[in-house]
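Trying the structure run again after the queue cleared.
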Amino acid sequence: MRLMPHYRGLIRSTLLSAALLLAAVFDVAHADNVVGAWESPAANNWPLISVHAALTPDGRVLTYGTWSVINGQNNPAQQTGYFKYDIWDPATGLNGPHLTLDSARESDIFCSSQVILPQSGSIFIAGGDNWTGTGTTNTGNNNSNIFRPSDNTLYRETVTQQPLVYRNMNRARWYSSSTALTNGEIYIQGGNGGGDRPEVRDLNGNFRLLSGVDTSTLAATFPRNFLAPDGRVFGYDTNGKMYYVNTAGTGQITMAGQFNSSYAGWTSSAAMYRPGKILQMGGNSNGSVVVDITGPQPVVTPVNQLMSSKRQWVSATVLADGRVVATGGSGQDNTLTDVNTSAEIWDPSTGTWTVGPSGSRARMYHSGALLLPSGAVLITGGGAPGPLQNLHSEIYYPSYLYSGPGVFAARPTLNPALSPNSLEIGRSGGPTSAERSPTGPEWSGLSWVLASVALVFWSTAFLPPNSSTVIPVDIWRIRPWIALRKRSLKWKKMFSARVLIRPHDALKSHLASRSTWRNSSRGIMPRPKPACVQ
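Done. C-alpha cells:
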C-alpha cells in the first residue's frame, strides 16, 4: 500500500524531536529514571488556550478552543472555536513557532469532540457551540467539521457534489464523545442537545441515528466510551452507569450496572491501559477503580491505594510502558484550592500510585494531556473560564526516558532488512533475535502494548479488537498509523520484538482474506478492504 502524502515528513519530525529532546536543558536534580522530569517555560508559549488537542498522523498537534475577534480586537483567551486553530510541531520544541490559522468561520467547534478518520487520516470534529457575535451560548450545534493535515485546512463538511449543502449530524452536540469503530465508522454519543440518541458516521460521511439506543437516562456530557474486545462500545456516564452499545443497524443498548459515584464525576478522567481494562480516576474523590470488560460482565475493582489528593479535572494518559500518569486537577471544581501539579503515576503491575515531580502551572477545567511521538507527554490548556488563562504548555518526560539523573537513555535500532514485507492476519512472521535490544531481550510487557495499539488506536486502521499477527513493534510508536514504524531511533529499554495476538474468532475468517500488512519506507500500514477506501 502506498502511503498517503500527509505521512511524509514523519521520520524527519521524529528524529528532530529526539535531537531537541537530548539537547534540552533540565534541572539535573529533578530529571531521573525513577520519576522523570518536566520542561516548563516560564513565559506563555501558546497562542491560545488548548481546550482541545489532537495528535495528527504526521506527528503534529492540533489545538483550538479560544481566540475571539470582536470589533477588530483580538482576545486569545475567550472561549470559542469560531475564529482560530493552531498547529504545532513537537520537533520545534515548546518555544518553537506555531502555525495559527484563521478558520472559515462556518462553525464554532468549541466543546466539540474529535477523532482521527481511519480512511484519510483527517480529524473529524463533531458538534460544538454557537457564536453570537460577542460570545458562545454553551449550547450545541449539529455541524460536522474536518481538519485535513495534508494542507492544514479546517472546513465544514458538505454533501458530495453539493458544495452549498452542509453535511450535519442528526443531533446538536455540546460535550459529546466520538469513538472509532473496527469498521472505520465513528460512533458519536451524548453532548447537550443530543443526549437522547447516539449516531454513527459511516465511511461516506453520512450520519445514521441509532433509534434503537435510548441514552436519555444517562448523563449527556462526556460519556466515557471505549471499544470493547467484542467490538461493541462500552461506556459509562458521569454517575457511573455502565452500558454496552451494539452499533449495527438501528443499534441496541444493554445496561451493565453502576459503580459507586464516589469514583465518578464529570471532572474525573479515564484511560484504557490494557485491552478491556480501564482505570477511572479523580472527580468526586481521590479514589480510583479498575473496570475490567474482558469478561461477560464488567467487573469494578477499587484501587487499594488512594491518590495523593482529590483531583478534579485531572487528565489520564497511558504512557509508553503501560503505566498511567495523572496530571492537573485541584481539590475544588475549577478553583485554586488544593491544586495538584504533580505527575502521579499508577503502575498496573503493583496497583500503586507514585507521586512524581511537579509542573509549573495549575491545570483544571479545559486542560488536557497528550502522549507525543517521543514518549513524552504534552500538558496543555486550562481556563476560559477559570482562575488562570493558560496560554501555556509544558512537557512531562517520564522516567523511562532516562538512564540516570539528568541523562537521557539511548535507544536501540530496528533493522527493516530483518522484517518481512507483508504479513497477513493469522500468519506468523517478524523480526529475528538480531533486532533485540543491545542490553538484552527485554520483552516484558510487549503483548499488551500491541494489544492496546490494536484496541485503542489501530481500531482506526481497520484492525479488530484483539487483532492478530506476529509483527515487529517499536513500542515508542503507540500512535495511530505509525505504531509499527521501523526506523533507527536510539533509546534505552525501547526495543523491537515478535508479538502474537490472536484475532477475535468471529472476525478472523472475514479479515484474513481482506487485510494485509504491507511494508513501505514509512513502516507497516494496513491495507483496508476495498469497501473502506474513500
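The chain has a mean pLDDT of 77. Worth checking whether this holds up in the mutant runs.
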